[in-house]
Design brief:
With 165 residues, the protein is of the alpha+beta class. The chain has 3 helices and 4 strands; from the N terminus they run αββββαα. It has one domain (11-160). A 4-stranded antiparallel β-sheet has the order 1-2-3-4.
């Protein structure tokens, strides 16, 4: 049974609770760091691949039960945030009737809220599979555009050579 506020002086109760909170914070920070280290290692490996490709895969998604035009999702991805490529997590919410006002919050994995990191860790293999798919699609699209880029360069070089005469 919880003690009543009048049973223990407010300052003593607050001090005891704060000490317990400090221990809990020490513990959560420690285990959170343990979860983050393998993700940092995976980020290093992905960075070495020099993909330059963004991919997202859902962790969970749905629609509002009472307003089905309102949607939400929680996703894990690989993208560039604040100039740094890495595994990331995001939340998305919006309304199909107003696509210009979609709300997206995205973080690199270890900067995301802890609850989202816990949800996201199981989806790392699905993310890597999505990265394979997106990397292959992007390579195909690049190959299709190489001849266009070569034609553009040849046209510019031809004009530049003609002006030198």
């Amino acid at each position: 049974m919880p003690t009543k506020p009048n049973d223990v002086p407010l300052s003593a109760r607050t001090k005891a609770s704060f000490q317990q909170l400090a221990e809990a914070a020490k513990n959560i920070n420690s285990v959170s760091d343990e979860l983050g280290k393998p993700i940092e290692s995976l980020d290093v490996g992905l960075k070495k691949l020099n993909l330059g490709v963004t991919a997202w895969t859902p962790i969970m998604e749905g629609q509002d039960e009472y307003e089905p035009e309102r949607y939400w999702s929680r996703d894990i991805g690989y993208t560039k945030i604040d100039g740094k490529w890495g595994i990331a997590l995001r939340t998305v919410s919006g309304d199909y009737r107003d696509p210009d006002h979609e709300r997206v919050e995205a973080w690199l994995f270890n900067d995301a809220p802890r609850w989202l990191r816990i949800e996201g860790i199981d989806f790392v293999p699905a993310l890597i599979e999505k990265l394979i798919e997106e990397t292959n699609k992007t390579a195909t699209r690049i190959k299709e555009r190489v001849s266009d880029a070569q034609e553009l360069a040849a046209a510019v070089n031809e004009l530049a050579a003609g002006k030198r005469k």
